């Protein structure tokens, strides 16, 4: 059934948002790549899950050097995905089903094929066109050395030399030149882009690399080894992460969002050191932010409790809601992580080659999903996690497209394993992903026949049914709709908390079954209780008073 569209301006405080990696969601035109037609055909599926909004990864024109995060035109749709008219229809149809629509915006960099950068390459050093980017002369007598020692997030140096001898900065791939946010033209352009999409009815934006837009113009050396660039995000006064100048930008963006009768919202992707995230979520800046501490946390009771406490306390200091997330398009799917001895996210970017117990990982993923959806605030579901999908770690090397694979000298396989196209129906690939049975842009495992949406729908104990049941409770149970939360005493290796005054969540991450509190009865369990009515290890239960 369609979900009632929230009528108040604070819908985002408790929203469950479904992440659509559009290349891999559903192919509507039969070319093996996901598109807007495919997404439109599955909107009823998303509404039936019970989510409040969809977040669509970049669908703009792009050479796809980094999966669409190298944008060449922010006011159009990549021809492979569809047209601007189709995007308008998608927004309208989503709203009719009670689904808000959030887009990705990529303000740190553009594609090297963007008209601005192509213009910069054809003008002389010091030109207004180059001032939109970060061009510098090199070091050494002949300028043949990069301007500093920074390393790119995907490996290799963060500088590329142009034919006239200057160098340009790219924190990610060479095909993604960084913009200069000290430039007024850059600021004005992105304010215009926001208004363009808001005027089309888009409900908000997820801001890619929100913490990296402003740089120290002195460009000092960092002295960090290769691939420590992301790990170095917690360094105080970092020259390109979490600089104070980003907050002026976000205050101007918030004013634009608030100028609409139905205010638009922002979600920050901000990897920052502990205690810094609230600065991004002050009342005149961004609305919410991804909770990377929760995503990366090991599935251990003490660690989870510490992260949950810190998140709620820190964000409450600025009146912002918490958000919770288990997977996304950049990290190993949590079914796979949770089936390993170490259940947290590791660096650099992937820790592959370790044995994975998928049965254990699935059981833990079910427990983690019910925990996440019982916590106060908002939550994010990455496409396919509701089907129980695992990381595809044996993709042929010839199929790998993530720039990390090349930039690391073929030592890090990158993120393709969590981006494999979704299985919808049938017993053989492409599992209904494409109407013409065209080979998907990344190959699907044959055993995904047990993970299709169709197979999940037919199994009343499936992961999909668990997500639907949990989301139904979030909508209908008054104790889950508020933000009240308090811990209760529980045995070692477990978590026990109360929502409102009549709902408990118990999570058993110990190695022994535990008794449930007296006078409380199960509402929803991530897995079966023991015959004696105990909560087994790696299981979560929601309970209500008899």
UniProtKB/TrEMBL annotation:
One family name in Pfam for this protein: Alpha-amylase
Biological processes per GO annotation: oligosaccharide catabolic process
Residue ranges annotated for the Glycosyl hydrolase family 13 catalytic domain, each copy included: 19-419
Gene Ontology molecular function: alpha-amylase activity
Keyword field: Hydrolase
Family: Belongs to the glycosyl hydrolase 13 family.
PANTHER family: ALPHA-AMYLASE FAMILY MEMBER, NEUTRAL AND BASIC AMINO ACID TRANSPORT PROTEIN RBAT
Protein name as catalogued: Glycoside hydrolase family 13 protein
Organism: Streptomyces guryensis
């Amino acid at each position: 059934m369609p979900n009632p569209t929230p009528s108040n301006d604070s819908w985002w405080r408790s929203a469950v948002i479904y992440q659509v990696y559009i290349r891999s969601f559903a192919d509507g035109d039969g070319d093996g790549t996901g598109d807007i037609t495919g997404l439109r055909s599955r909107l009823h599926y998303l509404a039936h899950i019970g989510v409040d909004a969809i977040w669509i990864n970049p669908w703009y024109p792009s050479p796809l050097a980094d999966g669409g995060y190298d944008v060449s035109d922010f006011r159009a749709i990549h021809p492979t995905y569809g047209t601007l008219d189709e995007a308008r229809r998608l927004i309208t149809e989503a709203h009719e089903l009670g689904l808000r629509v959030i887009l990705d915006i990529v303000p740190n960099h553009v594609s090297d094929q963007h008209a601005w950068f192509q213009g910069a390459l054809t003008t002389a050093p010091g030109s207004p066109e180059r001032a939109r980017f970060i061009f510098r002369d090199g070091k050494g007598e002949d300028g043949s050395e990069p301007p500093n020692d920074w390393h790119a997030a995907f490996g290799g140096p963060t500088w590329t030399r142009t034919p006239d001898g200057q160098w340009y900065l790219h924190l990610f791939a060479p095909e993604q030149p960084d913009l200069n946010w000290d430039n007024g033209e850059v600021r004005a352009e992105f304010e215009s882009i926001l208004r363009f999409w808001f005027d089309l009815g888009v409900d908000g934006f997820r801001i890619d690399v929100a913490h990296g837009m402003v740089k120290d113009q002195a460009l000092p050396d960092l002295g960090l080894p290769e691939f420590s660039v992301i790990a170095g995000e917690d360094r105080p006064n970092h020259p390109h992460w979490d600089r104070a100048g980003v907050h002026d930008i976000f205050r101007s963006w918030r004013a634009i969002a608030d100028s609409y009768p139905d205010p638009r919202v922002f979600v920050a992707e901000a990897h920052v050191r502990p205690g810094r995230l609230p600065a991004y979520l002050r009342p005149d800046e961004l609305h919410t932010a991804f909770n990377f501490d929760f995503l990366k946390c090991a599935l251990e009771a003490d660690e989870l409790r510490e992260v949950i406490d810190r998140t709620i306390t820190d964000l409450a200091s600025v009146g912002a809601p918490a958000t919770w997330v288990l997977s996304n398009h950049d990290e190993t799917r949590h079914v796979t992580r949770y089936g390993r001895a170490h259940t947290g996210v590791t660096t650099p970017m992937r820790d592959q080659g370790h044995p994975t117990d998928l049965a254990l990982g699935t059981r833990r993923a079910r427990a983690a999903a019910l925990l996440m959806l019982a916590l106060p605030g908002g939550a994010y579901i990455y496409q396919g996690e509701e089907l129980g999908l695992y990381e595809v770690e044996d993709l042929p090397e010839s199929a790998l497209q993530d720039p990390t694979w090349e930039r690391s000298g073929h030592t890090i396989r990158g993120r393709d394993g969590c981006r494999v196209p979704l299985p919808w129906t049938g017993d053989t690939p492409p599992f209904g992903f494409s109407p013409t049975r065209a080979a998907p842009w990344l190959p699907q495992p044959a055993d995904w026949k047990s993970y299709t949406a169709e197979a999940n729908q037919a199994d009343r104990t499936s992961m999909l049914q668990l997500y639907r049941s949990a989301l139904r409770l979030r909508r209908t149970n008054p104790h889950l709709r508020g933000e009240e939360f308090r811990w209760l005493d529980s045995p070692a290796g477990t978590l026990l908390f109360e929502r409102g005054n009549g709902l408990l969540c118990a999570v058993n991450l110990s190695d022994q079954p535990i008794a449930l509190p007296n006078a409380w009865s199960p509402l929803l369990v991530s897995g079966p209780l023991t015959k004696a009515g105990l909560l087994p290890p790696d299981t979560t239960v929601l309970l209500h008073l008899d």
